[in-house]
Design goal:
The structure holds three protein chains of three kinds. In chain B, helix 3 packs across helix 4 and helix 8 packs across helix 9. Chain B is mainly α. Chain C contains six helices and no strands. Chain C is flat and about 85 Å long. Chains in contact: A-B, A-C, B-C.
């Protein structure tokens, strides 16, 4: 028993290293861009918070940029630790007046990904919060669209 | 994450041969110099083959990872671009085929293949570019390597991994076509 | 008789200067490489070449099982070092602490919801998210005087920097318990 415990400790400490991916892979690597879209169904969209993740495939987030509407053209808030991982929470708000906010379906951000391997990745998005001008919560439809190679 | 070192600010006096020797010893900075030295050439060559910016960036990454896997023990016997060129070309062809698989119909696949085979979109009022676009990809490639990139015939043969005679034949055919094309025959008149 | 298109010699392979100049000046679309692509490639290079520099063959990182077993075997030998009993007991104690810590965290996962009484929960909905940052930003924009408790960075004023702190907390992956 006494002899086993040091070995157990070593194994526990070694677990993260064993689980590490190899530095180089023979699998193809490609970059993809995924547009994040929010439809506020006619109401002015002033703030949103979304969780985006890859459910399938070996995917790493390598960049995040802002959206198409001037109210959300700057990159959203996100945790820098999400870089090189497959999950991120993005959020942004605008204190502009209702007339200067998007009302329909708009691209609020674009996430750049590094995809390894042949498997086609699958993504999911979940809305955690959305609000209109005075901070009142509104229902929105969030979706993702991968930009295809031309 | 460590910020990438700006290799352009480093002394760039070492030859590719010296840099490769250093990379064989594990010198990351030497690889970085090689990367920045040849990066734009690789990505623009890939763009010439694929006609698509995203695919060209994918090919850029795959080319340099393919190159990286050769270390340690890589021996540079010629110009580094002679080694990189076939990799870029083959990866571009593979990338185009893979991109075609995303299309849903045979018609779209044919259209995409035809578009990339004739080269990038030609601007209006560019007769020379239009005439070049009408050449087959292999003839256009030889003409471009010879008269735009300035390679010798022997270098072109090495790049494209074809016999010297084939290079000469394709070059002759390409020039002959341009000579007879009404849009470009004026270039051949005194 | 040779076909008029047949190749007669190397003089047939030269292009007139006019054509060469025109080819050189054809408009060429250039691709610029985004920084994140450079960083991804050079990151792979650093990982691969690190092992090359240490004199090892470049291979995927793997725990050297044979070497590890040899070291443990030497350590557990009957005629091992005198400090062996102390080291053994220390290792046992560390193992227990580690297991206890893991079990505690498993039973009490980090929650994405801040306690309802958190000062950052400005809209009092029981959680801290971007709507709270938005709420503070609106107050500041309209000239309101937010509570001093919202001086989250302790610089003496409640301003956009504190808004950014709330927003950072809202999107933090660690608060949601998984990276």
């Amino acid at each position: 028993m006494k002899r086993c415990l040091p070995m157990l400790l070593v194994l526990l400490l070694a677990a993260p290293i064993i689980a590490q991916e190899p530095a180089l892979t023979n699998q193809p690597i490609r970059f993809r861009a995924v547009d994040v879209l929010v439809d506020s169904m006619g109401k002015p969209l002033a703030a949103y918070q979304l969780e985006v993740s890859a459910r399938k495939g070996t995917v790493k987030i390598v960049g995040i940029e802002g959206g198409e509407h001037p109210a959300f053209k700057d990159p959203p808030f996100y945790d820098p630790k999400a870089m090189q991982h497959e999950r991120v929470i993005i959020a942004a708000f605008s204190t502009a007046g209702a007339e200067r906010l998007p009302r329909g379906r708009t691209r609020v951000a674009t996430i750049h990904l590094q995809v390894t391997g042949e498997e086609q990745p699958r993504y999911s998005v979940k809305c955690q919060a959305a609000a209109s001008v005075e901070g009142e919560k509104i229902p929105v439809i969030a979706s993702l669209e991968e930009r295809r190679a031309k | 994450m460590q910020a990438p070192v700006n290799a352009a600010a480093k002394p760039d006096s070492l030859s590719d041969l010296d840099l490769v020797a250093a990379v064989n010893g594990g010198d990351v900075d030497a690889f970085e110099v090689l990367y920045y030295r040849h990066r734009d050439w690789v990505v623009n060559l890939a763009f010439r083959f694929t006609g698509d910016r995203d695919l060209a960036l994918d090919v850029l990454q795959e080319t340099f990872l393919y190159f990286l896997k050769k270390f340690p023990g890589f021996e540079l016997s010629a110009n580094l671009r002679t080694f990189l060129y076939p990799a870029v070309r083959n990866l571009s062809i593979a990338g185009r085929r893979k991109a075609a698989r995303y299309q849903s119909s045979e018609e779209e696949i044919r259209m995409m293949e035809a578009r990339t085979a004739t080269g990038p979109v030609v601007a209006e009022g560019e007769p020379l570019a239009a005439a070049l676009a009408g050449l087959s990809e292999e003839h256009r490639e030889v003409l471009t390597l010879r008269f735009v990139d300035g390679l010798s015939l022997a270098e072109i043969a090495e790049f494209m991994e074809i016999p010297l005679g084939t290079v000469k034949s394709r070059l002759h055919h390409g020039l002959s076509t341009l000579r007879q094309d009404p849009r470009t025959k004026s270039f051949f008149e005194a | 008789m040779m076909d008029k298109n047949s190749y007669r010699g190397d003089e047939d392979l030269e292009a007139p200067d006019k054509l060469v100049k025109a080819l050189a000046t054809l408009p060429k679309e250039r691709v610029s490489v985004p920084r994140h692509v450079d960083e991804a490639i050079l990151r792979e290079a650093r990982e691969h070449l690190r092992s090359v520099g240490q004199g090892q063959e470049a291979k995927p990182p793997a725990w050297p099982w044979a070497e590890m077993m040899r070291v443990i075997g030497d350590f557990l030998r009957p005629n091992g070092p005198r400090w062996r009993p102390v080291a053994l007991w220390s290792a046992m104690a560390a193992s227990f602490v580690l297991v206890a810590w893991l079990m505690y965290n498993f039973a009490h996962p980090a929650s994405s919801h801040a306690p309802a009484q958190s000062v950052e929960d400005l809209n009092h909905d029981g959680k801290v998210d971007i709507l709270d940052a938005f709420c503070l930003a609106r107050q500041l924009e309209r000239g309101g005087r937010p509570s001093r408790q919202l001086d989250l960075n302790g610089d003496g004023v409640v301003d956009q920097r504190d808004v950014a702190i709330i927003a950072a907390h809202a999107v933090s992956l660690e608060r949601t318990g998984r990276l």
